[in-house]
Amino acid sequence: MFFEGAQQSVTSLDREVPSPGSYRLVISNRFSVLTGKTVRGEVARQVDRMIPQPAKKALAKAESALTQTVAAVRQSAVDTARQAGSMASTAQSAVEQQASAVMDQAKDFVKRVGESVGNIVESGTSGDAKK
Q: Residue 20 in contact with residue 50, Cβ under 8 Å?
């Protein structure tokens, strides 16, 4: 027996059972046979004490493996992000170099076109002077 109390209109019962098994809660109404009673209860199960030791060890091992896996995945994600950042930086540098080379070619082309136009203008004005 876990609890036996005197005649009460309200009581709380907070006990732990010592081991797994079947238990019964018996409430007596012998002091107030003519009036009804309301019984409210809440049962909380604590299964940790009931888990066999080998199962606890297996559970701890699985939890440890899961923790290690999560850490490895996080590290892999960090490494991948670093690598992606490095690749983006390399790509940006390559694009900047190509853009610079294209700009240099464009400037050279504009210079040659200007020289050609200048030569044409000069040759046209030389011919006008001979007339």
A: yes
pLDDT of residue 93: 93
Dist. CA 72–CA 93, nearest whole Å: 31
As a whole number, the mean pLDDT across the chain is: 82
Q: Is 57 left (phi over 0), alpha (psi -120 to 50) or beta?
A: alpha
| Residues near 16 by beta carbon (within 8 Å), at least 6 away in sequence | 46
Model confidence, pTM: 0.40
H/E segment holding residue 127: helix 53-130
Length reported for the chain:
131
